[in-house]
Amino acid sequence: MSSQIVEVGPAVSAGTSVLEVENLSVSFPRRGGDLKALTQVSFQVKPGEVVGLVGESGCGKSLTALSIAGLLPAQCRVEGSIRLRGKELTSLSPTDRRALGGQEIGMVFQDPLSALHPVLTIGDQLTEGPRRHFGLARTAARERALDMLHRVGIPQTRNLLDEYAHQLSGGMRQRVMIAMALMCEPRLVIADEPTTALDVTLQAQILELLRTTTMDVGASLVLITHDLGVVSQVCDDMVVMYAGQVVEAGPTSRVINESRHHYTAGLLGAVPLPGERRRRLQTIPGTVPQLDRMPTGCRFAPRCGSADEQCRTEPALEPTDVGTSAKCWHPLPPGRGLARVLESAVEPAAPRTDAVPREPLLSVRDLRREFKSGSVLRRKVVEAVKGVSFDIAPGETFGLVGESGSGKSTVARMVLRLIDATDGQIMFDGGDLRATRGRRLRQKRRDIQMVSQDPYGALNPRMTIGDLMIEPFRLHQLGEPSTWKSQSVAMLEEVGLSSSMLRRYPHQLSGGQRQRVAIARALAPKPKLIVADEAVSALDVSVQAQALNMMKDLQDRYQVAYLFISHDLSVVEYMSHQIGVMHLGELVEVGSPVEIYHHAQHPYTQKLLSAIPPVPWLNAK
Question: Domains plus CATH for the chain?
């Protein structure tokens, strides 16, 4: 492989970049030989530039970020060069690397719940950086924190400074993480999936904030994301990673519209396009190889339909005719990568029309939920859900969309009987779910399963993946005990994971892999209804396409119904038969995907649709 830095932007002289990564390799020691997780990764980031790192879970994006930030475990072996404003980071002592944290490098982690300290208040965590690096007094640091929280769109910030991470929603925690990374106005901000937990309107605000802040202070941004719409919206350049290597890099518009690598084209083809409903999302066959099972030669060859004998030797990352670089023996011809995307954007078959309307599996009528806060003398009642009504028939999907705090997850928890409704009716499978108690309620648990937004919090950290997968089979006595392991392996394979995961613990998996385990656990009892609360938000686009196609296949096979909650309107459109739009605890509009996306009536729905990131490659049609 070439030892040159892959210039993902216009050529510049050495030393003018904020960040230069050259031939970065990271290995994990083990008996029998080191496991190489990164292999000769090279790219650079210029002042004020936004560079996106994209690829599937396990491709090395987050590991690259941790290498730059100096957060790798001590036993890791790092080779190559990482230079920040001309300073070599790999030769610094741990004390000097820590001094850079927060002041020169800001980090937004993928999972804010585990990244935020559970026993420190939000105010203590936000003010730590300015007080340590700038010597600010506590009062001045708190004022700075209030200003930053206001800039990231958090209301009532003074009360929030005295709260703890577990008291905030997923979206609120992510905004706090972003504010913390920007507190010292660092020269380089590394954002690892910063908008995963955010709705489309807040996502647009946060992306604009990140971009504006970097421009104001002359800083640069490395954005790690699986959302190619976000990459096309905010990134000047993009670096596509696969199996620990850079396989394609260049200006974002050129990589997207003139992709040469088959992997890049596969990622683009898996994106659900707004307003372009497909019969089926494209998927990339197979999975990212494990570190101890890397193929020889081209690492993407086992999943590539164009692989041949030549691919048994490793290609070099070579310049292309459009100013990008690609690591492929058989690069796609001009326009062919885009053609793959456009060929899949076809209108679906006509929606099913039943002569006789089917009885709903779940019927919600005038559902309400109130929360009380404050002291006994100053009791305050907040109405989180106000008169919500909808039906879900067997084998159908009801999509629920809206901004954070609109009441979507509260509706889900009431349907699951995790919290009690203040008023209203929940009829499930012919029975009154609100009146169900004891053993009968436990029996209903098998028929109503959930995939939560936070897989790390949903999976027991002390249990292996094998034990976690066997648990639903044991709890509901599904089949003979001797078959539980084989059934667990089959369910893992359904969501794109291998049996090698069985001995691992949740913390040893990436965020996307943990979410796939959570989906497999929910599907194991073959339920009648699955409440999917942001079930695919943590997945990269290729695995997301596999999961969505799989959920549709299971729906057709078993007539399972979904209450599908998501902030990704394109995903909701692809999955849903009916869509409900929630705002401030109310359903403000309900209709079919065509009615919602092409003939929206309510101003709030129109606002959500206008915030969807643009998809520039659609213009090529």
Answer: 1-104+189-206+213-300+310-348 (3.40.50.300), 111-185 (no CATH), 362-613 (3.40.50.300)
